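Retro notes
What went well: the complex prediction finally ran end to end.
Inputs used:
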Amino acid sequence: MLDVEQVIALIRAGSTDAFTEIVQHYQKPIIRYLYRLTGDYEMAQDLAQDTFLQAYKGILKTRAKLSFKAWLYRIATNNALQHRRRKRLLSFIPFTDSKKSDIPTVENHSDRTGERMAIQEALLKVPEEQKTCMVLHFVEGFKYREIAETLGISEDAVRKRVARGSQEFRRVYNRGGGEVK
Amino acid sequence: MRCSDIDELLSAYANGELSRTQREFVEEHLSRCTDCRAALADYMAVRQQFSSLRVTSALPDIKDATMSRIKATNVLRKPIRRWTRPALIAVPIVAILIALLVLHPWSTLPGPQSVMAKAYAATASLKSYRMTTSLTGTSEGKTLEQSSEWEFVFPDRRHGKLTFNSETYEFIIIGDKQYVREPDNASGKMFSVASSGFIPSKEDTLQILDSLTDLQELPEEKIAGVDSLHYQGKVDMNRVAEELKAKLDPGQRRYEERLRAIEELRSIKTEIELWIGKDDYLIRQLKQYTDAGPKGISTSTAKYYDFNKVITIEPPLDAHGELLPEWRLMENTPKEQVFSRDVTFTIRGDDPAHQQINFRITITNIGIEEASNVRVTLSTMATNEESGSVRMEAEPSTPGPVNLEPGESETYYITWEYDASNTSKEELVHLVNLTTILARYITPEREEAVQLLFPDAPYPSKTPPKSPPG
């Protein structure tokens, strides 16, 4: 069980290593979240590291108006949103870790089924706002209330975005077919 | 056709996100409407499809890489320099002379040993006292006048008023907390003054007293009705310079400048006159004559009184513990914010397709060191860009690189257009509130630093009001 308050107290007392527990606990869901948002496996890892680094820098200034989880996911969400712009500006991203070159991108990712790939590809075409809410809800298991807290929007807005996003997703997935009323 | 009113609720129903009342409402409708039952099936299918996305192939362990990055970044703040050390650069020469004035009466003057030893002992055991100082001088053609009043309750309470250039600043210091009240039109000088150690402390002045030479005894005088022994002496500025140099940190920015300022001290001639109470050996008065050649001359007088009287120094707070008007707490250790900020935005435009979003960001350096090349960047979701967010840089009101000394401010502006045809005004405001504003700058140690300006806490504040129901 991760006790965030305890970790914060330890960091405040000077123990950087205490933050490892947070990385340990959240790395897989955060990487997965970022991967589903961006469709880019390597980028998801980079963004995840960025997210944790930013979280570390900010963690001592906590005034706890959000839960830690919501706050962490908010940072991740912002990073995902910004990455596309970065991608346009950078024509080449140097690999600092040779292992990275072995990691597949979504195109040749060894997903068990082509179905998953198709879903992911359709998802990437859904507008950002809606996509974010859908991934948080369907993939990360956030309740609408949690999504609202994380993104700083109302629950009504979350509900709308999930509904419209779902419709959009179906439309794209069915390749322009399917009924949209 | 889907029943449009209910469609959104269907999605939420499929996701188990409705309240009981809403659920019953939807179920009642579903019992009558085949179209909506079909729509519901679609939503359930989406749910089903997405659940498969929870699975991914083995996700890598980024713990080691992340922790290395974290440790490599110098994220923990450096220890903050105690700002009782004089910042010689920030302060004109004449003001340094004020520091010489602000003495604690326990001195280790050489000379008539027995008297001085008694004076030292007497003042060391003081629990409280008051003092006033006044200085007049000319420096580079300008006449300067400064005065101050202080009261001390040991070990760690001070309360004083400092007046110069017709502006009065008031301080209350209790332990680590420093409160200040500035005049309305304060130019921000306060930070330089504060950081240059003008708030009296004995450590700063002891070394100067140590440097007295050529002590002579003069005829006794009465000061405030008290018979006083009377001495005169010169300050050995070479010795003062040496001692200040020894304390200078070569790693500090502007080391050479500070060194030069210290060297210039050597040419200053300073004479001190001291009156010590004959019966109790408490210092009653101290006068100082300083001749800094072309840089100016000054005369200053400090008077000491109310020894061991009951003096009450309390923080400037009201009955609820709130700061009284005009008072502010100076954050000094450990500092988390270099800048205070004032952020406002407006959304204007008659045409929803061409809404102008304008941000005005004023930042003030509330730190103790200069921040160079200060830039303000925004990352906002209030954008029509495909990516959903965009990063921009705001422009300072004065073009060119911005360097902010402690106390200085700068205002930055940025405007951009947003097509709000498909967005409600309220949603637009939500989006604009999702803007992150950062101040990027270079520290005196030549490191890049970033401070979050908006939202005002790393845990962003709660959302604006909910949209209307339905």
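What we learned: Helices of chain A lie at 4-12, 19-38, 41-59, 68-89, 114-123, 128-139, 144-151, 155-173.
What to try next: split runs per interface for comparison.
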